[in-house]
Specification:
- The chain is α/β, with parallel strands linked by helices and about 240 residues long.
- The chain is built from seven helices and 14 strands.
- The strands form two sheets. Strands 1, 2, 3, 4, 5, 6, 9, 10, 11, 12, 13 and 14 form a twelve-stranded mixed sheet that branches. Strands 7-8 form a two-stranded antiparallel sheet.
- Helix 5 (about 180-190) packs antiparallel against helix 6.
- The protein is globular and about 55 Å long.
Length: about 240
């Protein structure tokens, strides 16, 4: 799969480099690798990175809490992405604007927090990729499907719903936190998971995530930096 987890230090040219205001990096201090986003660490403590901002329209589904979604958005900002969030709970996302800071007394244009309605998006490019977050509940509207290179759309699902199967199946990458038994069974039906993988989804710790994709099943542990902890609080499963 093109959007894939990889160990940092391997294939260093897979993800492109983006430029970002040094003040942004100082505010967030995330882990990044040549435009990739470090999501967490593997069983041996090795950093695991995804090339989520790439020269192809990309879909990512997050099944879990708001902490995970906001951390992914912060790390995309830190490697130079525009971030547009369409949400029914804008107050919960103001932390991104806080992290981006002000420019000339005005909020940074790199972050836009909007209601759940169609709007004109910034035009993505290799130098300024675009991350669009759709935070519309368990059955999200496809308001901003990725249609151009360098646009990645993230769908935030608080839990799995049968009507979200099409969105989930179309994703290039799925990140799942711990699921109750019934939702794990639904996940097994959607992605044709064997019983041992289904059971693993029910036993993940608060700081654990499974990355799922084509020929990919990778448990990982979420890691937060000190600056991220100040913004988001401790790593957790819920919102």
């Amino acid at each position: 799969m093109s959007t894939r987890l990889r160990d940092a230090g391997q294939n260093p040219g897979v993800a492109p480099e983006f430029t970002v205001d040094p003040a942004m990096l100082d505010a967030i201090s995330p882990s990044g690798d040549r435009g990739g986003i470090v999501l967490g660490s593997g069983l041996k403590g090795e950093p695991l990175t995804i090339s989520a901002l790439r020269s192809a329209p990309t879909r990512i589904v997050l099944v879990g809490g708001l902490y995970l979604a906001r951390q992914v958005a912060l790390r995309a900002m830190a490697v130079g992405a525009w971030v547009v969030v369409a949400t029914g709970r804008p107050a919960a996302w103001q932390v991104l604007s806080q992290a981006a800071g002000n420019r000339d007394g005005r909020p940074s244009p790199l972050v836009q927090i909007r209601r759940l309605s169609p709007v004109e998006l910034p035009r993505p490019s290799e130098d300024a990729p675009l991350l669009v977050v759709t935070d519309g509940g368990p059955t999200p509207q496809d308001l901003f499907p990725p249609r151009s290179p360098w646009q990645t759309t993230v769908y935030v699902l608080p839990y799995l719903h049968p009507q979200a199967g099409a969105t989930a199946n179309a994703a290039d990458l799925v990140l799942m936190q711990r699921l109750p038994a019934g939702q794990a069974e639904l996940a097994a039906r959607i992605w044709r998971l064997p019983p041992q993988m289904m059971r693993q989804l029910t036993t993940l710790k608060d700081d654990q995530v499974v990355a799922l994709g084509r020929n990919l099943w990778r448990p990982l542990r979420l890691v937060t930096t000190q600056k991220e902890q100040q913004l988001l609080g401790p790593v957790r499963r819920g919102d």
